[in-house]
Amino acid sequence: xxxxxxxxxxxxxxxxxxxxxxxxxxxxxxxxxxxxxxxxxxxxxxxxxxxxxxxxxxxxxxxxxxxxxxxxxxxxxxxxxxxxxxxxxxxxxxxxxxxxxxxxxxxxxxxxxxxxxxxxxxxxxxxxxxxxxxxxxxxxxxxxxxxxxxxxxxxxxxxxxxxxxxxxxxxxxxxxxxxxxxxxxxxxxxxxxxxxxxxxxxxxxxxxxxxxxxxxxxxxxxxxxxxxxxxxxxxxxxxxxxxxxxxxxxxxxxxxxxxxxxxxxxxxxxxxxxxxxxxxxxxxxxxxxxxxxxxxxxxxxxxxxxxxxxxxxxxxxxxxxxxxxxxxxxxxxxxxxxxxxxxxxxxxxxxxxxxxxxxxxxxxxxxxxxxxxxxxxxxxxxxxxxxxxxxxxxxxxxxxxxxxxxxxxxxxxxxxxxxxxxxxxxxxxxxxxxxxxxxxxxxxxxxxxxxxxxxxxxxxxxxxxxxxxxxxxxxxxxxxxxxxxxxxxxxxxxxxxxxxxxxxxxxxxxxxxxxxxxxxxxxxxxxxxxxxxxxxxxxxxxxxxxxxxxxxxxxxxxxxxxxxxxxxxxxxxxxxxxxxxxxxxxxxxxxxxxxxxxxxxxxxxxxxxxxxxxxxxxxxxxxxxxxxxxxxxxxxxxxxxxxxxxxxxxxxxxxxxxxxxxxxxxxxxxxxxxxxxxxxxxxxx
Length: 685
Ligand code: NAP
Fold this sequence. Notes:
685 residues; Aldehyde Dehydrogenase, Chain A, domain 1; disordered C terminus; single chain; Aldehyde Dehydrogenase, Chain A, domain 2; 3 domains; Thiol Ester Dehydrase, Chain A; six-stranded antiparallel sheet; seven-stranded mixed sheet; alpha/beta; binds NADP nicotinamide-adenine-dinucleotide phosphate
């Protein structure tokens, strides 16, 4: 009996009460599964997510990151089941690698970013503390806190695993519960993924609900605390964005949708150059991986008119070598499209493109005698735009399959005009080794793209390619591409959080930020804080040092000792002629070395090491005869991965004898954690 796909709602698997839709295999048309969401109460799903959301927000970023990592490890160990099913969607082994391992990789990437770039806290402050008053008693900072609603994720059919995981990871890391809906055509792979996730028991209750089939009246129950993140076609995106509740309640809406991505071949990159070869290789790959059903695939090949014929000839011969076949065979083939419907749609779009372009390679209607006629197989199709100056459809019609169009240009300005006609894309690649050309194209095209790949002989060997969204870089694009911005490291997490400006006294803001701010109390610590272990150190604890004169002999000794005999330290006349100095001055490094000499408590103790300096600025010259003193204050602390020590960040401010700041920086140290405290999380909380 054909499998009926389940939803996972309110912590239980849900079997639909009817309205089942058959999902055919892309390979042989046989029904693989049946899906429906009939009977699901969407209001109850959103209520449940909101109720459970509080517990998810109650965890720190590090705790959520740790769960993402556990989940990624668990999925890695169970991914074979997903590979086995993916073949039915038309995906080859390599296509599945992008989908399954790419998705798992995104979980790992967010787990690691969460641990490294977010605090072990429930909120995060962004940017610098702004001084809002003359004396510094009124300051402001921006706090990001997770929204109190639910993240609704609607995905496209082409990457059922990656699509779900790349949206889930940042939302969960931010602290939001997720309701995810896969495209029905490949929902059986998504269901298998959710089954593995649920069986693992790793995620907290309510973190993930899964809707198989239509979303019913789900959007009616959203509020301004919710987020909708959509991937799919322009038409569906418009429908969802204009949903009355979404627009009336200003529900956040992130859209990744279709995009006519371009690859531009520079005028310098003629046949025989490495960039020409790279262009051909990249185009063939983008047309055939996942049978061209990638939102980032190259659709428009913008090439110099003078070598259009060469480009077409080489591509024609390379594409002829692509073997279309059954992805389950294990052979190196291009698999079928996701369904016969999808193939019909692609053929119809090619037909529209033919109003402005001729087919120069491939036959969209080709029958493959050795393959199942019920499979959605198709040959790669290359078109050539007849009149690039007046063509419109080649920039508008997305044939979501192994299809691309060659468009000739006469000048770089002309190439820019052509690419801009796509009205905003996810990605474009520039294939050129001419710096001026690359710079002109980048500055003209950046506002129209979410990502630009500059591919040449120097970066090709390690390039991840035109079509690969990466978790650390933004995925999305302006205009037609949806105006969205997913991934991009923490940028993707912040979509699920509210940025709030907090205005307060330094003391109040310090308490909220768990970070000492200048102007907040800085009690002198006895004993010296270098004698305190990580658990005993508290933000605000301060060392006020004695002062020390810096003599000319010190400066000369330092110059001889280090070899730094820069004229500003050694030559009175030359130093005076310099606009910054009154005469010979102390080395900045001498100042911070003496500063360390003043604040360091030398005996062995819990302070283990100095691990660096951040934001060092020399603010005023120090002349021979000046005296310096230091105020060293514990700014913040952060447990490290090791149970043996934690990182302490100190605000170091060096003053001269007039009380003027001559240098300021953050000093980073490692302090030992006491054995019993090793099991605790951040003792600052
Ligand atoms: P689609 O038809 O727009 O469907 C996308 C998703 O929206 C599916 O989950 C679909 O569910 C759902 N949906 C459709 N109508 C809906 C409605 N009225 N209410 C709620 N959900 C609704 O797109 P697709 O055919 O799956 O994907 C192909 C398109 O996606 C291409 O145009 C491609 O360019 C674009 N795409 C973009 C990206 C990107 O990151 N920018 C990535 C991949 C694909 P059902 O399947 O149940 O109808």
